[in-house]
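Weekly puzzle thread! Below is a chain. First person to post its structure in token form gets bragging rights.
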Amino acid sequence: MRIGTLAALAVSFVTMAAELEAQAPAPAAEQIAAATLALPKEMRDGAGVMGYRTAGKLELLRPVTNGMLCLADDPAEEQFHVSCYADTMEPFMARGRALRAQGVKGAQVDTVRFAEVKGGKIKMPTAPAALYQIFAQSYDAATGTVKGGRTLFVVYVPFATAATTGLSTVPSDSKPWLMLPGTPKAHIMFSASM
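Winning reply:
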């Protein structure tokens, strides 16, 4: 073998090792701290967290004790994203994850889930259910902060309509509004600037 070939192989191995390390799951405590950032401070300690002990395998890291379940950032994704929602939404959310893992994409995920709700396979909550999310460029575990982050807050009200809620269905940056009215995924949108 030539020295150039050996050098190229060494660079390839170093690159592969760095990529694997970048995708390796963070320690459970770090994932829990990051995932629960989406919640108000007073709700973080009791939230359950699903995260990664093994790359690509989402599993329970901490059980739910306050009705909220958080999903840790997926280390395989480039952007930082965490979400927390009322655990009553888990059957609907878990089905979405399962469908995406099977290769179902985009709007088809909801088409399948809506049919399964209608058929009684997925049970939706009967009370409003909150969802908190953070989308960011990155997360700094040392400081517990996100860079370039934006938040999203919604309250699921399955099958709600403008008539049943008194909410507009027109998107707004200054007022709550109802998205996907009349569907299992109907939810009240809130702007971070409110």
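Puzzle host: Confirmed. Bonus trivia for everyone else. The mean pLDDT is 89.
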